[in-house]
Amino acid sequence: xxxxxxxxxxxxxxxxxxxxxxxxxxxxxxxxxxxxxxxxxxxxxxxxxxxxxxxxxxxxxxxxxxxxxxxxxxxxxxxxxxxxxxxxxxxxxxxxxxxxxxxxxxxxxxxxxxxxxxxxxxxxxxxxxxxxxxxxxxxxxxxxxxxxxxxxxxxxxxxxxxxxxxxxxxxxxxxxxxxxxxxxxxxxxxxxxxxxxxxxxxxxxxxxxxxxxxxxxxxxxxxxxxxxxxxxxxxxxxxxxxxxxxxxxxxxxxxxxxxxxxxxxxxxxxxxxxxxxxxxxxxxxxxxxxxxxxxxxxxxxxxxxxxxxxxxxxxxxxxxxxxxxxxxxxxxxxxxxxxxxxxxxxxxxxxxxxxxxxxxxxxxxxxxxxxxxxxxxxxxxxxxxxxxxxxxxxxxxxxxxxxxxxxxxxxxxxxxxxxxxxxxxxxxx
Amino acid sequence: xxxxxxxxxxxxxxxxxxxxxxxxxxxxxxxxxxxxxxxxxxxxxxxxxxxxxxxxxxxxxxxxxxxxxxxxxxxxxxxxxxxxxxxxxxxxxxxxxxxxxxxxxxxxxxxxxxxxxxxxxxxxxxxxxxxxxxxxxxxxxxxxxxxxxxxxxxxxxxxxxxxxxxxxxxxxxxxxxxxxxxxxxxxxxxxxxxxxxxxxxxxxxxxxxxxxxxxxxxxxxxxxxxxxxxxxxxxxxxxxxxxxxxxxxxxxxxxxxxxxxxxxxxxxxxxxxxxxxxxxxxxxxxxxxxxxxxxxxxxxxxxxxxxxxxxxxxxxxxxxxxxxxxxxxxxxxxxxxxxxxxxxxxxxxxxxxxxxxxxxxxxxxxxxxxxxxxxxxxxxxxxxxxx
Lengths: 429, 387
Description:
The structure holds two protein chains of two kinds.
Chain A: H1 5-11, H2 16-22, H3 27-30, H4 34-39, E1 71-79, H5 85-103, E2 137-142, E3 186-192, H6 195-209, E4 213-221, E5 223-224, H7 253-259, E6 275-284, H8 286-289, H9 294-301, H10 338-342, E7 353-354, E8 357-363, E9 369-379, H11 382-385, H12 387-396, E10 403-413
Antiparallel strand pairs in A: 1-3, 1-4, 2-3, 5-8, 6-9, 6-10, 7-9, 8-9
Helix pairs in contact in A: 5-6
Chain B: H1 4-17, E1 35-40, E2 45-47, E3 51-53, E4 55-63, E5 69-75, E6 81-88, E7 93-100, E8 103-109, E9 118-125, H2 137-171, H3 175-191, H4 193-197, H5 203-207, H6 222-229, H7 242-264, H8 270-288, H9 300-345, E10 348-349, E11 352-353, H10 361-378, H11 381-385
Parallel strand pairs in B: 1-4, 3-9
Antiparallel strand pairs in B: 1-2, 4-7, 5-6, 5-8, 8-9, 10-11
Helix pairs in contact in B: 2-3, 2-7, 2-9, 3-9, 8-9, 8-10, 9-10
């Protein structure tokens, strides 16, 4: 199944939005309604006024500086061994079209969940019928193995254009990575304030990919652990602490320009103005953490649990004073605390746009919560903006006793997609 | 009938326990005069009240000044510290919880952490509620500290002796004997693991697992040798040469000698002992019960027992103090140690234990649950004995 716009005209269709517009008037009537307009690929139909949507097209991909939504479904895909370069290009075209529709509140395919031939399976799976997209964003990234596979083969003629920074992240101390929850040729990050909408997006993109790419692994996240806008309050992670306090916010455009978007690189001009997505699945030893005293917990984090103020004083937004000493001359913010090690002051001034989520994958065989932080950061260059910091934290961070990194991935995130283009188009032309 | 049963059970429960009453316990809650606020600036120390009824008192201390401050409740002699909270950064609020019998006290804020502080009289009136004795707690703490220091010293003595023996067997190529001694020597490390680990420079050299290493970091210590003695689970393993063996053996012994010297100078506090016991159980939970610690030899249950031994000794040292503060907690810990030991004893073989791979998933789960059961009350020792 490869939904394309020329087919969509013939099939007509009832979009999710069309159904809402018809308010139960019946499929036959709605086919001629707003949904059909969206299906032809023309101007978006009038959305339900109360729906929240984020523009899919633009200079940057949505889902990076977009105010972090509450829910995540992120999937890593491997392109099948049988797929050709043309297959890959067509997949990216099809994904782009489907993502543009879904983020606008329409079905994944041009026909939608309830239209098309009665004897054919619908081109949208239907569980998002009537649901507000709730700021759904779909963000795409390309992994190092798309350029050179594990054996070094250049499957799609892309190796000469592989950015220098796009290589598998190195092994860090205490890494306990599960290969089946790491890496991938492609990544799709779907975020929404409605979990079912995010899952719907990944499910339909997966279906579209069948025969060309298959899911390698995917991850659900249920609570954002950082804010990407100053209008959002800092949320708490599963340790009970406010997380990502000093993460970049969209309003800090100079900071975003300096630390998030890629620098020009001659052989990888296609990525200019894009970013890198670093993902780390960090399992947390919740049960042992919960037995730590409040004193120990605050000392490990370097902030108060109540407000998130640095232990050197002030409020959440107060800059930490790493020199301020307490009893016996010891600094109030421990030099091995998470705050100290992650702070820009101790990382050559680098900052990250964090976009992570809490996760609980049920429980493990020991009856413990299989829980943790699905860390996501967007950075201008992982070699300067992630790897040195993680190397230091993995060795020295007091918190590492309660953490285990079990999944990892790095992808190049192409710049935004103009109407009529597909994601990563510049890489193939 | 099927639907009737839950209703009956519920009614019985309600009658028996009065579980509909969710009102907070009156002791120590706000509004009973036992929760006080303290505002400490660089020049003033203001309490919301200068008198309180005897019992557990909570002081919420807010630093409105620019300097780091401390708050104390002192006995009537102005010297003995009943309770203190230190390192309060500017703008930060911290709580001090103390049990104070009726009597005269001093409150003191110490902006800048220097001098006598800003003192004022503080009165605790008799509420009629019994407050635990606080008399010679200090003596009990001292003896606990001393006893634990001896224990640590003794274990490291034995560790050193057995390590010498072990590396001699290993370098002589007496692998079967070295394998037999390996878990027996390791128990002395594991019994005081939280102390040994507190030396951040030694621990990575002595006890690192392969996955713990930084890129480019050389792998040394117990587990490097373990892999060489039990290469069965390794892919395409190249055994170490005699010269390499000697290098790793000498290194392990040298580091053990450094550790031995260092612990001789250590002293402990009740807080450190209690948190050490908790830390040992954390080690069991994250390394031993999961079979990750002794990946090659599968001797995890030896370490498991040793961690439990060390935690038990720590608790025993603090028992007299703990019983005085909270006898219920002490007896709960006792029974959960017993439960866990019973489970562990099922897996004994000879003078040691079966290998980890002999455990069924259900047995591992059972052990894990028992570790959680013990860890929860154990983690409360520090807060209890320090209160």
